[in-house]
Specification:
250 residues, 12 helices
């Protein structure tokens, strides 16, 4: 990557992070045109930067709720990265999976959940392979796809499939927690909390109560509530919702 191009990437990214998204898009659009020309002249050298700018530009449009434009750019990036992945899976698996995930989110924004599921499932197949080879590096992306599948299946009312991915996700995080409680206690507790509140909203009170007991155990066992008093309030609020809310049946 040339120095000028790298600076434009950094400037666009900084503006986007600071919520100056319209300014970021102007920089990204100019950079997309520049990299498109370079990519056409020398695809092998510039394909990485070109697909990266397509992805960045798509994310910026997505943040402005310009979903059709974002979808168009994600689709273009996916087409290129899919070809790269087929030629060299080891080199391009991670980038391809990220693009599948981003495109799935774009379809979720358009309420096209069936299409999103197809993409999430394909992303999971790739990420699970990467995660098995290098759990430390790929844990975050692996978990992100699992929780996305849980919520998407839940939205579609396919609760058995949703539960399958919820249990898979919790098992993966619990494994890390059991190996190093101090490092992973807060992450594990937050994930249990997320699923507990999700099951309350889905009116699966039995499952929510079971998870709440696990959450309480983790918080007390690792003294998270002493390190952060917010955990005491979280437990109290969930307890009230599950055991004291008159609208919830015992």
């Amino acid at each position: 990557m040339g120095q000028s191009i790298e600076l434009k990437f950094k400037l666009g990214y900084s503006l986007h992070v600071l919520n100056f998204t319209n300014y970021a898009i102007k920089i990204y659009e100019n950079l997309t045109e520049e990299l498109s020309n370079l990519y056409q002249q020398n695809p092998e050298e510039w394909v990485g930067d070109y697909t990266k700018i397509l992805n960045n530009l798509a994310l910026a449009y997505k943040d402005l709720n310009q979903h059709d434009r974002a979808l168009q750019l994600f689709e273009k990036a996916l087409e290129i990265r899919e070809g790269l992945y087929q030629q060299n899976p080891q080199r391009w698996a991670g980038d391809y999976a990220k693009t599948l995930n981003n495109l799935a989110i774009a379809y979720i924004d358009l309420n096209q959940h069936d299409r999103a599921l197809q993409l999430y499932e394909k992303a999971l197949g790739i990420v699970e392979s990467l995660y098995q080879k290098n759990p430390e590096r790929w844990a975050k992306q692996h978990e992100a796809v699992l929780i996305a599948l849980f919520f998407t299946y839940s939205i579609l009312g396919q609760h058995e499939k949703a539960l399958e991915y919820q249990e898979k996700h919790l098992t993966a995080v619990k494994t890390k927690y059991q190996k190093n409680q101090k490092r992973w206690a807060n992450d594990y507790a937050n994930i249990i909390k997320t699923y507990t509140t999700a099951f309350i909203e889905l009116d699966n009170i039995e499952k929510a109560r079971s998870l709440f007991l696990d959450l309480t155990s983790v918080v007390k066992e690792t003294q998270l509530d002493q390190e952060d008093p917010q955990w005491s309030k979280i437990l109290s609020d969930i307890h009230s919702a599950l055991f004291e809310d008159p609208s919830i049946s015992p």
